[in-house]
UniProtKB/TrEMBL annotation:
Gene3D superfamilies: TolB, C-terminal domain (2.120.10.30). This is SMP-30/Gluconolactonase/LRE-like region domain-containing protein. It holds the Pfam family SGL. PANTHER family: E3 UBIQUITIN-PROTEIN LIGASE NHLRC1-RELATED (PTHR24104), PROTEIN LIN-41 (PTHR24104:SF25). The lineage of its organism: Eukaryota, Metazoa, Spiralia, Gnathifera, Rotifera. InterPro entries: 6-blade_b-propeller_TolB-like, NHL_repeat, SGL, TRIM-NHL_E3_ligases. NHL repeats lie at residues 265-302.
């Protein structure tokens, strides 16, 4: 997902050096208190360095402020459901410049997108899809009238004008059935690659992975999420099945580096079993949604640390994880 803070990274962590061990900023024990999480998925960092966490099996969104010892439930959290004020297994979210949240959750049999005005405890249903399984969400950074959704059912990316909602959206990437061709996308990330899809293009360009599932530095295995530093054209990938975070230059996709994890499954500070979300703050610190350990790990950007390795939207380009 697009994050406005990416431009800071050019000067604050340009050498790509992070602490090997992470610090748990929230969670670490499974539960529903506001300092606990249950199967966290996507995360989003806003312009104030506040972190929004999709706390999936607690059916809520948690907002965590820097240095806080607990979070605040800003949407859902009153039990699973689709009534006003409720969420049901949310999967992804984004926030516009006014602080309004847009959240994807399940509506059975499809999915829905709800809009939560800043400070409101009740969301408005923006979309209620019966045949679209939305898996990712982001705004066009140049025009927030346009919202993009990843449709996992049809293996495509859809664009909607939220000021004039009609139909099922415009297909802007994929939509050519499931497969590994460059005009195709695949919902379960079995293609293990990151693809850039320019506006109006009929095919994408692989900028990460694409060499089959594996654990070499030019490979990914079921990548789950990523973050883009727009200024340096660098992509940070939550490489789920490899239990690691990769740093890849979009200009040199065969030269990735491991910057966190890569130490198997476990709950030690340096381990990231099945990472599901990724974000960076204005100082270049790396935040990872550690799904299996029900925690968010922060890896500090540090020039003295030991280097441990050898659905985002930018301008009119889509980068798609599959």
């Amino acid at each position: 997902m697009h994050n406005e803070l990416t431009h800071f990274l050019d000067t604050l962590c340009s050498r790509g050096i992070w602490a090997r061990g992470g610090k748990t900023v929230i969670g670490g024990t499974q539960g529903n208190a506001t300092n606990q999480l249950h199967s966290p998925e996507g995360i989003y960092m806003d312009s104030t360095n506040a972190l929004y966490i999709v706390d999936r099996l607690n059916h809520r969104i948690i907002k965590w402020e820097q240095e806080a010892i607990t979070g605040n439930a800003v949407a859902g959290g009153i039990g699973p459901g689709v009534k006003p004020g409720e969420l049901f297994q949310p999967r992804a979210m984004t926030v516009d410049k006014q602080g309004t949240m847009y959240i994807i959750d399940n509506s059975m049999p499809g999915s829905r997108v709800t809009r939560w005005q800043k400070g409101s405890k009740v969301g408005e249903v923006l979309f209620d899809f019966k045949h679209i399984i939305a898996g990712g969400i982001a705004f066009d950074p140049n025009d927030e009238d346009y919202l993009y959704l990843a449709d996992r059912y049809e293996h495509s990316v859809l664009r909607f004008n939220i000021k004039n909602i009609t139909g099922n959206g415009e297909i802007v990437a994929g939509g050519n059935h499931i497969g590994p061709a460059l005009n195709q996308l695949e919902q379960h990330t079995r293609n293990s690659r990151i693809v850039v899809w320019s506006e109006g293009a009929k095919v994408g360009v692989v900028v990460g992975g694409g060499h089959g599932a594996g654990n070499q530095t030019d490979q990914l295995s079921f990548p789950e999420a990523f973050f883009l530093d727009r200024l340096t054209n660098t992509i940070y990938v939550a490489d789920k099945n490899n239990n690691r975070v990769m740093r890849i230059s979009a200009d040199a996709p065969n030269a990735g580096f491991v910057i966190a994890g890569n130490d198997g499954k476990g709950n030690a500070a340096h381990q990231l079993p099945s990472p599901h979300g990724i974000a960076l703050d204005s100082k270049g610190n790396l935040y990872v949604s550690d799904n299996e350990n029900d925690r968010i790990q922060m890896f500090m950007c540090s020039s003295s640390a030991k280097f441990i390795g050898s659905l985002y939207f930018i301008t009119l380009t889509i980068i798609f994880i599959q």
